[in-house]
Design brief:
Elements lengths: L2 H8 L4 H17 L11 H9 L8 H11 L70 H21 L5 H17 L4 H24 L3 H18 L2 H17 L3 H17 L4 H17 L3 H15 L16 H14 L3 H14 L5 H17 L3 H16 L5 H14 L8 H12 L1
Length: 438
């Protein structure tokens, strides 16, 4: 059963009722100027989308209506564009700004209700800041710089403490940035900066959602960031986003998809003559994809390319999102590849070396490394060192690091140590892990 039909049935809607609600939603979105015209929907059309072997691809405005109504990209409803065989699937984004009334000169808060994951922040209220007597809202450069600095601050927090608590404020910053783009007055130069900021926040939001274990949301934001990069010709944003998408694909056990994303990222990197640190990052992402599918030959080749690029050295053009790739982190990423390939002894040595070199500014990465080191050590028959690494990871979690990915690693440690539960200290460690990741 296609997801579109399943959702309609779950909502207790007939096809006729669903068509009526979609038509109403289309009129509303058109009134809010979020689509160019209100598409018409019919029962016959809906039936084809739900049951046809090769359903017709909806018009862009119809896709927007479906995405908003069902709160997910249309591809997740079982619909596919006519030509999707030559590249990775890019999900149609769900519009980020949701309003309950036709737009005025500003968004107006409708009350002091609780802020949910889907609701706009209550502080998006009418304001006179930056407006003149005619009611125009002129965007100042200082406002854009403030949001950009906040994005950089959140990235630094992510590196040290993880992102479980970052996706919500970043989403609020992104909503406000879109509000500035849609309602503000600014010149072309500032407009370019606003769109660049929106792309930066969108791919960051995808990364924070991924680190928090919100995989569907992460894919949506990554897809929107990639669409924005392609639309504006921002190859730097495309390279960053595709690197993130490749990392997520590995964790979702989609190794081939990770390889495609990494290679596409490399093509975008060539277009802006990216520095070696960026090409090294994309090469190791490719290696991780090959490792996940057990392709030893291509994995080894990609690892070698990553180290050759990285050894070229730092560059003044290194973007902030690639600067985490120091010697310790690249060693850790290679160790992860070795672990996926089943080379447990080599993986343990690499991960132990990486963990010893990790600095305090990258505590989240150190926690990830410790978790994988524990998994590698237990798989290698070295339970004692596995316990030491797991205990250190637990200490980081207890000190305030909030990364769902690290918690997932501890669950793998727990499962790997269960056969050794009678060994000295293992039982106590298992209880501690359960207390932290239950």
């Amino acid at each position: 059963m296609r997801e579109l039909m399943r959702l309609r049935i779950s909502a207790n809607l007939t096809q006729e009722a669903a068509v009526e609600e979609l038509t109403t939603m289309a009129r509303r979105l058109h009134a809010e100027r979020r689509i160019s015209k209100a598409p018409t929907f019919s029962v016959r059309q809906l039936r084809k989308w739900e049951t046809a072997d090769d359903p017709p691809w909806p018009h862009p405005d119809a896709r927007s209506v479906l995405a908003v109504y069902w709160k997910r990209p249309v591809e997740e409803l079982g619909l596919r564009p006519p030509s999707n065989a030559d590249g990775p699937l890019v999900l149609t984004p769900v519009p980020l700004i949701r309003q309950d009334r036709p737009p005025g000169s500003m968004l107006v808060a409708t009350g002091a209700g609780p802020l949910g994951d889907e609701a706009p922040p209550p502080w998006l209220a009418e304001t006179t800041t930056g407006t003149n007597r005619s009611g125009e809202w002129r965007i100042a450069l200082e406002e854009v710089e403030l949001l950009s600095d906040a994005a950089d601050d959140n990235y630094a927090i992510d590196q040290q403490f993880g992102a479980d608590r970052l996706w919500r404020p970043t989403r609020a910053h992104l909503l406000w940035t879109h509000h500035m783009i849609d309602r503000g007055i600014y010149d072309e130069t500032l407009g370019q900066q606003l769109h660049a900021l929106a792309g930066k926040l969108t791919t960051s939001l995808g990364w924070y959602s991924y680190d928090a274990g919100l995989q569907a949301q992460a894919r949506q934001y990554f897809s929107e960031a990639l669409n924005a990069a392609n639309y504006t010709g921002d190859d730097v944003l495309a390279s960053r986003t595709l690197s993130n998408m490749a990392r997520q694909a590995v964790d979702l056990n989609k190794g081939r998809e990770a390889v495609r994303f990494a290679k596409l990222g490399q093509r975008h990197a060539e277009l802006w003559s990216a520095p070696s640190r960026v090409t090294a990052l994309l090469a190791i992402r490719e290696a991780q994809g090959y490792a996940r599918v057990g392709d030893v030959f291509n994995c080894e080749s990609a690892i070698k390319r990553a180290w050759l690029e990285w050894e070229t050295g730092n560059d003044d053009r290194d973007p902030d999102w690639a600067q985490f790739l120091n010697f310790a982190e690249l060693t850790c990423l290679e160790g992860m590849c070795r672990l996926d390939l089943g080379q447990t002894d080599r993986a343990q040595k690499l991960l132990a070396r990486s963990e010893a070199l990790q600095d305090t500014a990258h505590s989240r990465n150190r926690g990830m490394c410790l978790g994988r080191l524990s998994v590698a050590a237990v798989a290698n028959g070295d339970v004692d060192h596995g316990m030491v690494a797991a205990t250190a990871a637990l200490t980081l979690v207890g000190s305030g690091m909030s990364s769902t990915r690290t918690a997932a690693q501890l669950k793998l440690v727990h499962d790997g140590m269960l056969p050794h539960h009678r060994s000295r200290g293992v039982g106590d460690l298992l209880e501690q892990i359960r207390a932290h990741v239950a």
